[in-house]
Design brief:
246 residues, six-stranded parallel β-sheet, globular, 8 helices, Undecaprenyl pyrophosphate synthetase, binds magnesium ion, alpha/beta, binds 3-methylbut-3-enyl trihydrogen diphosphate
């Protein structure tokens, strides 16, 4: 499978909306949290595969600002799962040279979760392999909102001129400022929507939707998505003919 992947056309950044844990559990007659627990193996497999292939950034939509609206039992279970997974996986991330980072309003997560995240980030900060970015208490509109506030405040204080505001400046105020825009977005579970994920950053991202539920998503599913991406012509508004002039 990996032989079909062209290493010269590898996406630098893959973003994933990991969806379908609840339906996966329901299909087995189990509680939703059972699905979330099984989702961790898919996270491990995909992280490992990205590291092996040489993908530089992997962003996983882990908990959206809208997910606070779920039943308390599920939210608490997800928070506990986050802490226990970080505990269990930190050594493995270190041995794989994975650098952990976060986007989203993580300061508003429960204290024990927040502390664990900062610890994980600190411990892995010198790693040079895959950048694994978890989107937590994140939404695209939240990020744009906080960026607009900062830009307005810096303009008022005279740190920037209104004329300085352009695409690059806006990008530099988002929580994704040090991360290139994703070339490929994968969403599992058959849903074909963005659900408030990287709204600004996905202006030209290739979208890949699969019916596979996230707990069933493995390395081969990732290779299929990358293969599909590599067969696309990314025109960025130009014509095919323009792209093919060598
Ligand atoms: C994705 O799976 C995980 C999170 C949003 C945390 P879901 O929990 O949304 O699963 P479905 O969509 O209900 O099947
Ligand atoms: C998106 O999935 C959020 C995450 C994967 C963390 P949801 O399951 O919450 O999205 P909707 O509600 O189906 O749009
Ligand atoms: Mg869902």
């Amino acid at each position: 499978m990996t032989q079909q992947i062209n290493p010269d056309k590898l996406p630098k950044h893959i973003a994933i909306i990991m969806d379908g844990n609840g339906r996966w559990a329901k299909g087995k007659g189990a509680a939703r949290l059972f699905g979330h627990r099984h989702a961790i193996q898919s996270v491990k497999d995909v992280t490992e595969a990205c590291g092996e292939l040489g993908v530089k950034y992997l962003t996983l939509y882990t908990f959206s600002t809208e997910n606070w609206g779920r039943p308390k039992l599920e939210v608490d279970g997800l928070m506990n799962l986050l802490v226990s997974t970080l505990n269990d996986q930190l050594d493995s991330l270190m041995s794989r040279d994975v650098k952990l980072d976060f986007i989203g309003d993580i300061g508003c997560l429960p204290d024990k979760v927040h502390r664990k995240l900062l610890k994980g980030k600190e411990k892995t900060k010198n790693n040079k392999g895959l950048n694994l970015i978890l989107a937590l208490n994140y939404s695209g509109r939240w990020d744009i909102n906080q960026a607009v506030k900062e830009i307005a405040s810096d303009t008022r204080e005279g740190k920037i001129d209104v004329e300085d505001i352009n695409n690059d400046l806006i990008s530099s105020y988002l929580s994704t400022k040090n991360i290139p825009d994703p070339e490929l977005l994968i969403r599992t579970s058959g849903e074909m929507r963005i659900s408030n994920f990287l709204l600004w950053e996905m202006a030209y991202t290739e979208l890949y939707f699969t019916e596979v539920l996230w707990p069933d998503f493995g390395k081969d599913c990732l290779y299929n998505a990358i293969n599909s991406y590599q067969q696309r012509e990314r025109r960025f508004g130009k014509t095919s003919e323009q792209l093919n002039i060598s």
